């Protein structure tokens, strides 16, 4: 059995593809692709995926609202992938970086 709490992975993005990402998948597509990749990599290890629209962040979560505002105001390249509060990818995410961050929390590939 797992002895650690499931990590939260947030993908911040928007319906509109960011101007510098025209050839890349949308934020929603990235979210779905990332979730599928992580479920394959860590099949029996739970984690929690959240999609945050940077233009309509959840009103009841100050941390998510604040980061969404920063992404918009500072023109970050999105999607932005955050694992347990740590930004691990901006723009086209690299699985290797996300896996490395998850492994800090005890996740192991099967």
TrEMBL record:
InterPro entries: DUF1462 (IPR009190), Thioredoxin-like_sf (IPR036249), YuzD-like_sp (IPR038218). SUPFAM superfamilies: Thioredoxin-like. This is YuzD-like protein. The lineage of its organism: Bacteria, Bacillati, Bacillota, Bacilli, Bacillales.
């Amino acid at each position: 059995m797992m002895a650690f709490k499931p990590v939260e992975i947030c993908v911040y993005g928007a319906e509109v593809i960011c101007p510098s990402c025209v050839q890349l998948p949308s934020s929603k597509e990235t979210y779905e692709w990332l979730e599928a990749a992580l479920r394959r990599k860590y099949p029996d290890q739970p984690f929690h995926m959240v999609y945050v629209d940077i233009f309509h962040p959840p009103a009841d979560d100050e941390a998510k609202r604040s980061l969404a505002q920063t992404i918009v105001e500072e023109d970050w390249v999105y999607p932005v992938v955050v694992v347990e509060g740590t930004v691990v990818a901006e723009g086209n995410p690299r699985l290797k970086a996300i896996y490395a961050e998850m492994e800090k929390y005890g996740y192991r590939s099967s």
